[in-house]
């Protein structure tokens, strides 16, 4: 007998209610990523997005000569002021961070809002390499944040770092996928979405597994180019679908399809490989999640 994967929604959407999401990411002046993706995508899903900037960047670090301003010093007062005016949150979505102290600040936010959904995109590395602004301390701290997530969305490099394992490239077999996801769950992550796996079949595979979803795989044709910002588009659309009341199997499939569609739109723009992923014309698909 075959067993159809089961999944239950992590967030129950009530028709007239607008959920509030704290988006804890950097702000980039140029390049499609982080808050520049999270704010429009979650807003299109009818969420009230409250940004917490972890840093200010002139551009995505894929561009040479980028400038960064670390905002760690302002964050405690910034968040205390929210408490002063009684801000309530339904979800806390963190991504690219500027310093290890920011992990403690996010854990304080979790403590302040114990019922809010904790979504951790452990943005810190790709293709076996840590991003240039990430120190050893920040990488270690990010691992502890991953352990407290309700939804954790690492790529293979980030998963290997969190688990202290060797990065084996993007082409890993099904047994390795289960072993990585099982180990991340054992450390404490409730649901894991493992992104960007290849099995040499011309497809990109994403996997989701956790307390609220049986082990499920989604596949998309692998497009013959890479663009910066796709990780943020994937995580933001996944959360948009979850906040619209979709279960994580549906949300993962939605995110993978949306990201691939955005990559196709991007390829029609001038100089597209430099400008990163363009998703703006597709935001109506996110709003349609509410229909
Ligand atoms: N070349 C591609 N073709 C199709 N989908 C892609 C491609 N690159 C990325 N994606 C989609 O975007 C998701 C996020 O990928 P990626 O940008 O590699 O994440 P990260 O930046 O966090 O490593 C993938 O899991 C996949 O669904
Ligand atoms: C400033 C900044 N923000 C966010 C990201 C994450 O971007 P991506 O979605 O391309 O993984 C990066 C990656 O290098 C970055 O440099």
Automatic annotation (TrEMBL):
InterPro entries in UniProt: PM/HMP-P_kinase-1, PyrdxlKinase, Ribokinase-like
Residue ranges annotated for the Pyridoxamine kinase/Phosphomethylpyrimidine kinase domain, each copy included: 87-264
EC class name: transferase
Domain of life: Bacteria
Gene Ontology MF annotations: ATP binding; hydroxymethylpyrimidine kinase activity; phosphomethylpyrimidine kinase activity; pyridoxal kinase activity
This enzyme's EC code(s): 2.7.1.35
Keyword DNA repair: no
GO biological process, alphabetically ordered: pyridoxal 5'-phosphate salvage; thiamine biosynthetic process
GO cellular component, one term: cytosol
Entry keyword set: ATP-binding, Kinase, Nucleotide-binding, Thiamine biosynthesis, Transferase
PANTHER family, A to Z: HYDROXYMETHYLPYRIMIDINE_PHOSPHOMETHYLPYRIMIDINE KINASE THI20-RELATED, PHOSPHOMETHYLPYRIMIDINE KINASE
Protein name: pyridoxal kinase
